[in-house]
Write a structure and sequence with these properties.
Layout: H1 3-6, H2 9-18, H3 26-37, H4 42-52, H5 56-65, E1 77-82, H6 85-89, H7 92-103, E2 109-110, E3 116-121, E4 133-135, E5 138-140, H8 145-158
Parallel strand pairs: 1-3
Antiparallel strand pairs: 1-4, 2-3, 4-5
Helix pairs in contact: 2-4, 4-5
């Protein structure tokens, strides 16, 4: 998908104006851009650098320093699956494999329709309810492949489509 072709630079201008074009608002500006596009497109970062009269490398420095920012497209719905010890011994890797197969992506990838981003992490800190999956910030414990697919399909139905 060509993200740059879909960029609305007028909207980026609106975001910058909202923050009065202040360099001190850089992190807030980047958060607003990421909220809009689910990542920080290169064209948007160049626009921010130009408007704030900053070096593009400095903008990238901030964008890559904070883990909350992403320079690669992510889906509308974030799915995080735990592979920590407790989740691992409760068949977590098998469940993750089924989720990946269902979404037709590997961990670290976004579905072709840009709806789901799947990632695996080493621990979510809720070992007692493992295996654990977090979808859009909501924790689901005791997850298995059937439960995971139902959660994903519910999100698909809400948007009126099916994952392609």
């Amino acid at each position: 998908m060509n993200w740059e072709g879909r960029m609305d630079f007028k909207h980026v201008d609106t975001i910058i104006e909202k923050h009065q074009g202040k360099r001190t608002a850089l992190i807030s500006i980047l958060h607003d851009i990421q909220d809009e596009y689910n990542f920080l497109p290169e064209g948007a970062l160049q626009k921010v650098a130009s408007r704030l009269q900053m070096n593009t490398n400095d903008i990238y420095g901030v964008a890559t320093f904070y883990k909350s920012f992403s320079l690669t497209p992510k889906g509308k719905h974030a799915i995080t699956f735990c592979l920590g010890t407790a989740c691992h011994v409760r068949r977590g890797p098998k469940v993750l494999q089924e989720i990946a197969r269902h979404l037709e992506v590997e961990p670290g990838q976004t579905t072709r329709d840009d709806q789901f981003y799947l990632q695996a992490v080493n621990c979510l800190g809720v070992c007692a309810i493992g295996p654990v999956m977090v979808v859009n910030g909501k924790y689901y414990g005791g997850i298995n492949a059937i439960k995971a697919k139902k959660i994903i399909e519910k999100l698909n139905r809400k948007r009126g489509g099916v994952n392609s």
